Amino acid sequence: MAKIDSVSPLAPASFPQLVPVDGVRFATAAAGVKYKDRTDVMLALLDPGSVVAGVFTRSSTRAAPVLDCQAKIGVPSDAGAAILVNSGNANAFTGARGTDSVEAITLAVAQAAGVPQERVFTSSTGVIGEPLPHDRITDVLSTLTSNADVNGVAAAAKAIMTTDTFAKGAQAQVDVAGKPVRIVGIAKGSGMIAPDMATMLVYLFTDARIEQTGLQALVSGINERSFNCITVDSDTSTSDTLLAAATGASGVSVDGDRGFAEALEGVMLDLAHQVVRDGEGATKFVEIAVSGAASDAEAKIHAMAIANSPLIKTAIAGEDPNWGRVVMAVGKSGAKADRDRLSIRFGDVEVAKDGWRSESYSEEAAAAHMKQDHISIGVDIGIGTGQATVWTCDLTHGYISINADYRS
Amino acid sequence: MAKIDSVSPLAPASFPQLVPVDGVRFATAAAGVKYKDRTDVMLALLDPGSVVAGVFTRSSTRAAPVLDCQAKIGVPSDAGAAILVNSGNANAFTGARGTDSVEAITLAVAQAAGVPQERVFTSSTGVIGEPLPHDRITDVLSTLTSNADVNGVAAAAKAIMTTDTFAKGAQAQVDVAGKPVRIVGIAKGSGMIAPDMATMLVYLFTDARIEQTGLQALVSGINERSFNCITVDSDTSTSDTLLAAATGASGVSVDGDRGFAEALEGVMLDLAHQVVRDGEGATKFVEIAVSGAASDAEAKIHAMAIANSPLIKTAIAGEDPNWGRVVMAVGKSGAKADRDRLSIRFGDVEVAKDGWRSESYSEEAAAAHMKQDHISIGVDIGIGTGQATVWTCDLTHGYISINADYRS
């Protein structure tokens, strides 16, 4: 069966050399929550004055740590803060016992780190429905707090992995009013598809100074164009969490600064694409750009219908320029379309125009594009100005192998 | 690669011995539309006085024959009628040329069969985006009309197949006011998943006497509980068509008769299940029953989220009682749920109750149920009285093999 040990063919050549972000320190430990012989807990300690923003899954069965984070985001405080993440167990669908575990962990972190409990944010990722052995986590807290170091972010990216085949990191530096501001991010997961809802988690750190409400607005907005525009298999985790922390240590205020917003978007998009590149069984990275829809929201509905279609994803796996399936997906999406105005491109190859196969269509040229490992599908609905771009991967035998027997 | 030549392991033991229905005659021919050495056109001739009802795909990119049928359904006429179906080419996304083909075929059928053109209904199923060589069909019309026979329905079920691994037929006889009425149905397809949108097609014939509006109301209503409750992979065809014809030849009026409605529902459900049993790559037939939802409509949203989840379908393929994925699907569905009231059953095994793994849960008992080829998943949302049942199949390597390279 099941677990794939080789690194995704779409992985970046190497993990980036991430620069330290002033005001945040990291530590990791091997607590044995489930995995043996690897780190499975990471702690990030944020200096006093840091603000924290977050975006979370909308699942109605979301996990206890998600509910706890949601309650704490935006509560004003000048104290320090902490983010603790464990892999191996999602503490999801664990009833009152799950809430107790979150309480025990956040209390212990607060004491060990000397921060208020309402400033301790946790995430858990891994198997669902099993009680979290939270003692194993609280047992390593003193080690974590004493080892915390500004250079620990790469180790943190590794500690939060579950079935990821590579650690995911990205960064940016931007000058605001002539002074440098840094943004560093790490992520784990394969979109919504990681087995047993081992989930998508994202942590962003910047030394920028920014109001919490401003940071929240920024990450919520960019999240719609980055993480909410990726899909591996349409299945949504019970634990998806993004936390963004601004320590203010650079002394540079970025409220309303466009350069900072663009740099942050670059980091988030980079991480979102890395999650797709680690999609289970993925062999192709697929960009789907829809234009000419009735609105941006309708364009995204079309794009997601294409990105989630098993028939399209299997055709891409087979390197088959099967544009008829794109017509099908647009038709079923529920968003407005006019069959006779639809145009489709695979890469630079115009496949269909105004509701039929293009006069200039070359099956050979389209097939050549499908052989690449970066596939781009362009669809013009032809009825308006709405547009959206989403990213996904193909659906392969690897996906079946990984998911048909993960728990056993 | 691609085409699977062996019959689905979930196929019925044999095609049923279908009784003739008075007032309808069938003929088939090998027109060479695309396939060689097999029949690919079927004609059903309906006696004067027949009424025809229909249900069609809601795809916004639906094919020319579908649009033509929709325009003709319900137009009153005492004349005879005809249904002509070809396999091998869907005449979908073929622009004005597609409309011309429908016009040419319906005109020729009208002349050959001596019925008005607005009483000729056609369906086309197979490859999308290729012009339909309609001359090959009109060339065999005189053969078809002269061979038409009341006993031809089994041959008709075969002629409409594309990648189906078995022909699908069902029937019922019901006494109304002490007199027998017959219902016979045939179908093709593997739900919404057949490659290149080779589609789901269903034809029902009865000798009952019934108003067209009454027949339409019956099939529209039952369709919601039968064909609209199956899914193989969430992909919706551009050509899905169901036509129901009542010849009235029995002389028995069934308007408002409950026994007739139940018999019709039995035939439609039987055919719907057969379509799932021929789902591409299917090795398990899966029934998903949701209760306790806020409404019946919300129950169906939950049930379809479960039925379409790739993670659940692959777990079933792997015979893994992975109930955490059911929690995930309920959570993402968008319909109302309360995590802490959710209960889940696999077969007779209570897996989860009130938001956590059941006290009595036995992994061995659940795993034993998953080894069967008929899997039943029961979910109680615990917040209302809404219920729905849907049917699907598992997602296997066979599905990937069939769909990753169908056109090539």
Task: Describe the secondary-structure layout.
The structure is a homodimer of 408-residue chains.
Chain A: E1 24-29, E2 41-46, E3 51-56, H1 64-72, E4 81-89, H2 95-113, E5 120-127, H3 134-138, H4 141-147, H5 153-159, E6 168-176, E7 179-188, E8 201-206, H6 212-225, E9 241-246, H7 258-277, E10 285-293, H8 296-307, H9 310-317, H10 323-332, E11 343-346, E12 349-353, E13 356-357, H11 363-370, E14 374-380, E15 386-393, H12 397-403
Parallel strand pairs in A: 4-5, 8-9, 10-14
Antiparallel strand pairs in A: 1-2, 2-4, 3-9, 6-7, 7-8, 10-15, 11-12, 11-14, 12-13
Helix pairs in contact in A: 6-7, 8-10
Low-confidence stretches of chain A: 191-198
Largest interface, C-beta closer than 8 angstroms, per-chain residues: A-B, 68 and 67 residues
Strand/helix succession of chain A: EEEHEHEHHHEEEHEHEHHHEEEHEEH
Give the count of helical stretches of chain A: 12
The level 1 CATH classification of the largest domain in chain A is Alpha Beta
Task: Tell me which oligomeric state these chains represent.
Answer: homodimer
Description:
Chains A, B: It holds the Pfam family ArgJ. Chains A, B: The record marks 125-126 as: Involved in the stabilization of negative charge on the oxyanion by the formation of the oxyanion hole. 2 copies of one chain form a homodimer. The first copy, chain A, has 408 residues and is α+β, with helices and mostly antiparallel strands. The first copy, chain A, folds into 2 domains: 24-277, 4-Layer Sandwich (L-amino peptidase D-ALA esterase/amidase), CATH 3.60.70; 285-403, Ubiquitin-like (UB roll). The first copy, chain A, has 12 helices and 15 strands. Chain A has helices at residues 64-72, 95-113, 134-138, 141-147, 153-159, 212-225, 258-277, 296-307, 310-317, 323-332, 363-370, 397-403, and strands at residues 24-29, 41-46, 51-56, 81-89, 120-127, 168-176, 179-188, 201-206, 241-246, 285-293, 343-346, 349-353, 356-357, 374-380, 386-393. A 6-stranded mixed sheet of chain A has the order 13-12-11-14-10-15. In chain A, strand 12 and strand 13 (356-357) form a beta hairpin. In chain A, helix 6 crosses helix 7 and helix 8 (296-307) crosses helix 10 (323-332). Chain A is globular and about 70 Å long. Residues 191-198 of chain A have low confidence and may be disordered. The interface between A and B is large, with 68 and 67 residues.
